[in-house]
Amino acid sequence: MFNEYEIWWVTGAQLLYGGDAVVKVDAHSREMVDGLNNSGRLPVKIVYKGTANSSREVTEIMRAANSDARCAGVITWMHTFSPAKMWIHGLQQLKKPLLHFHTQYNAEIPWDTMDMDFMNLNQSAHGDREFGHITARLHTRRKVVVGHWTDTATQDRIAVWQRVAAAWADAQDMLILRFGDQMNNVAVTDGDKVEAEMQLGYHVDYCPVSKLMEYYKKVTDEDTKALVAEYFRLYAHAPELEDPSTEGYLKVYNSAKAELALRAILTDKGAKGFTTNFDDLGTADINDPKFVGFDQIPGLASQRLMAEGYGFGAEGDWKSAALLRTVWFMSQGLPKGCSFLEDYTLNFDGANSSILQAHMLEVCPLIAAERPRLEVHFLGIGIRKSLTARLVFTSKPGAGLAATIVDMGNRFRLIVNDVNCIESKPLPKLPVASALWIPEPDFATGAAAWILAGGTHHSCFSYDLTPEYWEDYAEIAGIEMLRIDKDTTIPAFKDRIRWNEVYYHLFKY
After folding, report:
1. How far, in Å, CA of 423 to CA of 400, rounded?
2. What are the CA-CA distances from residue 145 to residues 126, 156, 161, 436, 490 (Å)?
3. What does pTM read for this prediction?
4. How far is the C-alpha of 285 from the C-alpha of 212, rounded, in Å?
5. Based on the number of CB atoms within 10 Å of its own CB, is 432 exposed (0-12), middle (13-18) or buried (19 or more)?
6. DSSP labels, 194-208
7. Is 474 helix (H, G, I), strand (E, B) or coil?
8. Could you give the strand order of the β-sheet that contains 236-237, starting from the edge strand earlier in sequence?
9. pLDDT band at 103 (very low <50, low <70, confident <90, very high)
10. How much is the mean pLDDT over the chain?
11. How far is Cα 287 from Cα 170, in angstroms, rounded to an integer?
12. Band of pLDDT at residue 289, cut at 50, 70 and 90
């Protein structure tokens, strides 16, 4: 995944100080790029693209970056004074994410030996401000990282941006398949799919469930039994589920068959995410002799496919499906996990008031505190009311972020809430996967701010991502971001929303 991409490094210089100076700039740049790549802290390889000494060279590099599918973004650094007018045409054409790295080859000033030659050559303090001016003048979206290139905190900030830039590149050819439509009359999960493709890159296609059933019919008994055996190896379960004569086994078997069908069509279509609708599962009448359809909501399949990196949204929520894929992509290699979640019900308990996050079935096992348990229970919702297989677990305690994107008509709005997952109690009558969290800064303020912002009842949750990821994502995407954190107050949050309305109506670049 990350190895499919690379980040280009371009060093700003000029020929005023002579060719020997540029040779030294080039050597320093190569050493720095090698040092960053060998640090073990960056998920995406940096590729050094040389020094840029003229407007033509800058423009050629930026055009090449645009046309190279492996290039996920560009890092620029002004080793010495690089006149910013020569960057104008290249920056105007650059379509990839940009990181401006304000650093220096040497960490400290060599007080006893510094002469005019050294000062002329090592002018990042000068050149990076010149470059910063032109990016500000051009309204270029970018991230600015300040720090020495050998410093681990600096490297970690670059790593965050790399993860976001690579996830952004992944989204630019992301296909989301919608099996069935939206849940009727639900506003927040709908939106402008054309604008989403223009602004966020991904494409959403409707796919008839009848097409999915063509794949379902082709799933073999051998493959299905092999997957069922994998379920029993991976998940805790009651021994009787392994008895082929029981209805419980049949439900697990059909869940495996549904997973294989979904996996096959997603692979065939090159899709990175999907949505389902519990009112459209194939032929309506399960007693029809010609019945071809899922005998239950494919919740177990959705849970497992999420864990593999497929985006998912329930009830046709294509924005959540796309965002979850991006969350998973950014989180690769990080330890704690992510999931699609839904605000289920409230627990009023004073300072410990919280929100139960769950769904009928579809919660990703990556966030499970312990080994998930495979269970079969009756589910009385949707077109298919029947025994249904699912993974049951509670989430691990810890801090995380809930994020969602909503369509505000004239723009997309990213809403991010710091939340704290706490230990949940058993739900013997509600056997589903769940999380229990308290939103920052407290239940009342966090919930009110989310509602004031127009947030969805669905969210994409991660333990591993920090607010910096979402700040970088919003900057690259050019969308609004509202964060709800420990410092949020309702009056200030309302003012933020009002000022944003003015900006996005009048001044959005």
Report:
1. 14
2. 16, 10, 10, 35, 31
3. 0.95
4. 17
5. buried
6. HHHHHHH--EEEEE-
7. helix
8. 236-237, 373-379, 386-392
9. very high
10. 94
11. 43
12. low
In three-state secondary structure terms, 29 is: helix
55 Cβ contact list (under 8 Å, min separation 6): 85, 86, 87, 88, 89, 90
pLDDT mean over 418-443: 95
Pairing of strands 434-439, 386-392: unpaired
CA distance 43 to 114: 36
pLDDT mean over 382-411: 93
Residue 283 has pLDDT above 70, yes or no: no
- Confidence check: pLDDT of 130 > 80: yes
- Hey, which residues does 293 pair with through a beta bridge? 282
Q: What is the mean pLDDT of residues 305-329?
A: 97
CA 325 to chain centre: 6
Q: State how far the Cα of 5 lies from the Cα of 172, in Å rounded to an integer.
A: 13
How buried is residue 501: exposed, middle or buried, by Cβ count under 10 Å (0-12/13-18/19+)? Answer: middle
> What does the pLDDT average to over 303-314?
97
Q: Where are the alpha helices (DSSP H) in 174-283?
A: 193-200, 209-218, 221-234, 247-269
The residue with greater pLDDT, 508 or 324, is: 324
